[in-house]
Amino acid sequence: MIYWWRRSLAAQFIGFTLLALVVSQALTFVISWDERTKALHAAMKSEFFSRCASVTRLMESVPEPLRNQALFASETSYSRFWLSSEEPTDANAWRTRAATELTRPIENFIDLAGKYGVRSNPKANSLMSKEVIAADASIRWTTPPPVLWNSPQPAKFVYFGDHNGYGLAIKLGDGVWLNTAFYKPDIDQWWSLKSLTSLMITALILSLIGVFIASRIARPLRRLALSAEALGRGENLPPLPENGPDDIRRTAEAFNKMQERLHRFVDDRTRMLAAIGHDLRTPLTSLRLRTEFVKDADIQQKMLSTIDELQSMTEAAISFARGESTAEETRAIELEALVGSICDDLADLGLPVEYIEGPKTTYRCRPDGLRRAVRNLTENAARYGGHAKVYIRHSATTIDIVVEDNGPGIPESMREKVFAPFFRLEASRSRDTGGVGLGLSIARAIARQHGGDIQLTPNDPGLKAVISLPQEGQVQTPARVSRRKRRSGPFKLASQEG
Asked: In angstroms, rounded to a whole number, what is the distance separating the alpha carbons of residues 410 and 456?
């Protein structure tokens, strides 16, 4: 449950909506229940006194032998009438008699509550419970106010049963006392089946609305996240649709503008470097011509070597910049076949390269760029480490292409510096063996364009270079693990496998 709450926008939206529903219902109940209860009690008390006044007038008009039958005909489910020859003085004793009378069944009473699914309350039919008939010294007879009792007959009034019960004793003209008892507990409870059903239906409707609204919010955010991830991997993406509410539309517009600016920045830098390289060719050519006039052959050779190095570095820098900006399409390939073919090519050239096959993996990447990065690392390991062992391993979040060697390694303080452009270790300063120092820079740039990175760690002895690629859309199938040094042919595109 906590997992879905943290990861699901719909779950949070529904949770807060239901919480708001419960809080609003609770506040409404607290605010209105007291006033509603008072209004219901006032209506019941008014009806009670009106019925008592009507029955009193009836008792004054009917003959004495017919009084009991008239009283029985006037009784309801919650009220009882009886006559007494003496004035009731003890309120607690009268309440005990009232409880007995209220449990007496009504003649010719038809109960339709069960027909309509209304459950009767046992307290409404039986007031013999302790909380109703227990002695209470605070109960006293009082005189009803004139606004409720304006008949000429004297009357006495009393509350009982937690103020849900009323009692009235009226002295008739012949000295007989008319006793009336009324009791109706649990007046219109708010937790009735209808109210709970209404609350559940409201919660269900709000939940469905919450799911709909959350999906409309999450869908463009999910699309934006996927596009940002793909952009970070260097893929060329179509602009996001700029529609929907203002907040979503402005976010899509900002992302599209950012993507356009990034592409424009890379294109401008590439054109600038190309222009610099083109302009540098003229002074380099001029310097090369002027070296022809140098008579000292040794100095002339050194100058030509320096000019060649400058030209190589310039061409390599331009090639590096163009390679970064090349708009190669991202497509699915067999990663194991790509890495294996690189190792086979280098082994055919006589380099000590060993590739350990693993499970076949289909991966979306820019194969030409990834081939270049793996080749640079493998070739460096074979040339300067004495032997290169290459394999692919899988972790929970990454696919790692590991290149191990048995050479002298690289000091820890230099492991990040070797990725700087044109940086070369002292042991490889020669152009014949060390190049211009762009191989690792190019390899890391390609790995980061795919959303990954390259790390150098000790191998005891030697060095271990790891290209970590994010597990984005890869499908892994089991395969036989073996070692090979022979050429297996070029890698295949996943779409060509059939």
From this structure: 9
